[in-house]
Amino acid sequence: MGTLGFWRLAQADPDWIAAVDPDGTQHRAGDLLVRANRLVHGLRELGLRPGDGICALVPNGADGLVLYLAALQAGWYYTPVNWHLTGPEIAYIVEDSEAKAFFVHPRYAVEGARGAEAIAPDRRFAVPDGDFSGFRAIGELTDGRPDTAPADRTAGAAMHYTSGTTGKPKGVKRALNGLDPDDSAELMTFLLGLFGITPGRPNAHLVTSPNYHTAVTQFGGTALHMGHTLVYMDRWDAEEMLRLSERHRITNSHLVPTHFKRLLSLPEKTRASYDLSSLRWMIHAAAPCPVPVKWAMLEWWGDCLYEYYAATEGGGTLATPEGWKSHPGTVGNAWPISELLIVDDEGEPVPAGTPGTIYMKMMGATFEYKGDPAKTAANRLKDHFTVGDIGYLDEDGFLFLCDRKADMIISGGANIYPAEIENEIMIHPKVADVAVFGIPDEEWGEQIKAVVEPALGSPPGPELAAEILASLEGRLSKMKWPRTIDFIAEMPREPNGKLLKRKLRAPYWEGRDRAI
């Protein structure tokens, strides 16, 4: 131990550019260190102790990074809040996380103020120094406080809230390890080490998605602790991503398959006009990637695409470029510190090639859903846990995802996996995005419905629907074809690429006693 961790690196080289905001503002490591130190001194005066938590409703950039760095060296839990939530949803997280301070950016002042009702007025702060009613300027915490490192430093942790596909979101809380913050950060770098990522400069990590997502915090934070420069995007844009990659010589990033589809739909001339030779470890996850889309990206970017499957709760798989090419469609095999188990509905292991519920465990990792022992127990099988995904292992131990259990369609007694159908439809050049799900059918129980967001310049209508269905001929058995296709102007997705299928499905199930 002893060479990595942001605080150590910043003291050794205060002039290293550690972060670049979306507007291009550069931040020296030494300046970020001073801001984080002052914040710890100020929050301790407010009464914060190790084990307490803070919440933040802030956009991507250095302001949120300073909050994260303060919490991680003071033994606090840091909870970044999804900025698409409404006031009451924000208030629920502030209250449930037992936050002792709440930081809000002026951009989110309206819903942030409603959410702040869950916390005492003297614990609400505007970041950066904003002047909006009901919030104290963050300067009141930091002005005049020492620049020096606080005494009794101890490692904190991020506590993210799961997206709450069933009921209210839950905070995934891990026991604090009591280590020195830099030593703890160095342990975190094991994750990026799995992908072969090396520490030091010149390396730069592009933050393409909102920082309130677990993986975005994990991969960005860990890259920083390895001495990489963090380059933030405010919102995803395909050409802007290429521009930033060339400008900052990006070596690694964290992406989702929707990003690939948007990148590939750029004009050939645009794609060819950027120098992407610096890219080395472009990591993707969050949704299955259609095989032809991944092949097209490998042809364009070369062997720098790494894929993984994991959950906020811990454990996962990794597919290297070589592993994926020899097993196209896989999400990889288990990490060295992780274990996979595929079981049937009775909890018994199934043979290779047979789909079942995926359970995982990670050595030494324990967690609880905060305040919900029942939910924690319900998702466990001995010391393994599941997030409800279905998949199978091949003979070589490579994992292939089928779908989420909750999204499976049962039509005429047959189990149908929408993800498989979506992957086939997604390949069509006139399709920008697609969602497949079951809707009520008196005879079959459920019938297959597809909702398609047409590509630019492709008019929606019966002709396009017929063309899409015809393209499935010989590639997908007729029982898996959508009975009907509806069109939508824009697919409801979270910025991390996660499809909000419930929003699409709900209208079709209205008035039914069974809504899946």
From TrEMBL:
User: Domain named AMP-dependent synthetase/ligase: which ranges?
Assistant: 7-362
* Lineage of the organism: Bacteria, Bacillati, Actinomycetota, Actinomycetes, Streptosporangiales
Q: What is this protein called?
A: Acyl-CoA synthetase
Q: What are this entry's molecular-function GO terms?
A: acid-thiol ligase activity
UniProt xrefs under Gene3D superfamilies:
3.30.300.30, N-terminal domain of ligase-like (3.40.50.12780)
Which organism is the protein's source? Nonomuraea glycinis
- Looking at the record, the residues that make up the AMP-binding enzyme C-terminal domain are 420-498
User: What domain of life does the UniProt record list for this protein's source?
Assistant: Bacteria
Q: Which InterPro entries match?
A: AMP-bd_C, AMP-bd_C_sf, AMP-binding_CS, AMP-dep_synth/lig_dom, ANL_N_sf, ATP-dep_AMP-bd_enzyme
A Pfam family in this protein?
AMP-binding
